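Incident log, support desk, overnight shift.

02:14 A customer reports that sequence design results differ from what the structure should imply. Their input is reproduced verbatim below. On-call engineer (initials T.W.) acknowledged and began investigating.
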C-alpha cells in the first residue's frame, strides 16, 4: 500500500474530488465532549478530524502565546457587559488593556492601539448603546448519543425591533470557499444548541456576523423551529458517523482542491492517492511514523 512519505508517483495535475478510506494507526478514540469547531472539521473531512482530535497532531487555531483576535473578543465582551451609557469608543483602550492584563500582568502591550482599532469596528456595525444585551460568551451544549456538543456564543442581544440576535464577531470576514466553510452554518449550530433554553420552540432568531476590519455586518433570514429541527437532524447524522468511524480504524479522507490549505496536507495519504492516475486505490494506509509530531499539550 502507498504511504504518505512515498511521493515518487505524484502527479500534481490529477486533482479529483473523491473520498478515499484511510486505515489509521490506533492512537486512541474520539472524546465524548466535542466542540462546534471540531464538528465542523469532521463535517468537512473525517480524516482531518482524526488528525486533529484523535491523533492530536497539528496546531489548534488559537495556538500561540497570545492572539489579537482573542484580545479583541475579550475587549468586546467587556464593552457589552458595561451599562449602555458607558459603552463608548473612549472606553476601548482601557478595556483592551484590561483584557491583555489577564494573562500578562506586567508586560507592555505593543499592539494596544491595533487591538482598539479592530474592536472599534463594532461601532460601525451595531448600535452598541441601543442593543439590549442578553448575554456575552454564552456557553451552549446539547447531548447527541455518546457526544456532548459544546460551543460559545459571542453575543446574544435584542435589537430595537425586539428581534433576538445570535451574533459572532469576526476580526475579518472572509468569503467562504464552500458552503461548509460558511460561518453562518456554525452560527446555526449555536442557535440550535441554544434553542433548548427558548421559552417556546416558535421563538424566531436571526444570526448575525459582525466583521470588524473592515466593518461589515451580515444577517440571516429568521431562523424558525423547523430550521433548527432540520439542522439538529443533520448534526445527529454527522455525530452518528463519527461514532461509527470511531469504532473502526478506517476514516474517510475527502479530497478536494481546498485540501491545499489543510494543515495535514503534507501527511495525508488520501491526497497522495488522489493525485495518482485513474485506477488508484479506494483505501490506503497511514503509518504512525508518517504523522507530524504530536502537539505539546492538549488544547
Ligand atoms: S488534506 Fe484533504 S483529505 Fe487530507 S485530511 Fe486534509 S482535508 Fe482531509
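02:41 Re-run completed on a clean worker. Output:
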Amino acid at each position: 500500500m502507498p504511504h504518505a512519505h512515498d511521493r515518487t508517483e505524484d502527479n500534481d495535475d490529477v486533482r479529483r474530488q473523491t473520498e478515499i478510506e484511510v486505515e489509521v494507526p490506533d492512537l486512541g478514540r474520539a472524546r465524548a465532549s466535542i466542540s462546534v469547531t471540531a464538528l465542523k472539521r469532521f463535517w468537512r473531512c473525517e480524516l482531518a478530524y482524526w488528525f486533529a482530535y484523535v491523533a492530536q497532531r497539528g496546531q489548534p487555531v488559537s495556538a500561540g502565546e497570545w492572539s489579537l483576535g482573542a484580545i479583541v473578543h475579550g475587549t468586546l465582551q467587556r464593552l457589552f457587559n458595561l451599562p449602555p451609557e458607558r459603552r463608548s469608543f473612549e472606553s476601548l483602550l482601557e478595556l483592551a488593556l484590561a483584557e491583555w492584563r489577564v494573562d500578562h500582568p506586567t508586560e507592555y502591550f505593543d499592539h494596544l492601539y491595533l487591538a482598539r482599532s479592530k474592536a472599534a469596528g463594532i461601532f460601525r456595525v451595531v448600535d452598541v448603546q441601543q442593543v439590549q444585551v442578553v448575554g456575552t460568551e454564552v456557553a451552549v451544549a446539547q447531548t447527541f448519543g455518546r457526544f456532548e456538543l459544546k460551543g460559545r456564543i459571542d453575543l446574544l442581544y435584542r435589537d430595537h425591533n425586539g428581534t433576538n440576535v445570535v451574533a459572532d464577531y469576526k476580526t475579518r470576514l472572509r468569503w467562504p470557499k464552500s458552503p461548509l466553510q460558511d460561518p453562518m452554518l456554525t452560527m446555526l449550530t449555536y442557535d440550535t444548541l441554544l434553542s433548548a433554553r427558548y421559552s417556546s420552540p416558535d421563538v424566531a432568531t436571526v444570526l448575525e456576523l459582525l466583521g470588524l476590519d473592515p466593518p461589515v455586518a451580515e444577517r440571516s433570514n429568521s431562523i424558525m423551529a423547523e430550521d433548527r429541527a432540520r439542522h439538529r437532524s443533520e448534526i445527529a447524522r454527522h455525530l452518528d458517523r463519527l461514532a461509527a468511524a470511531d469504532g473502526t480504524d478506517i476514516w474517510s479522507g475527502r479530497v478536494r482542491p481546498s485540501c491545499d490549505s489543510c494543515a495535514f496536507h503534507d501527511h495525508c495519504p488520501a491526497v497522495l492517492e488522489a493525485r495518482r492516475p485513474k485506477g488508484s486505490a479506494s483505501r490506503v494506509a497511514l503509518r504512525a511514523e508518517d504523522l507530524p509530531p504530536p502537539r505539546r499539550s492538549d488544547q
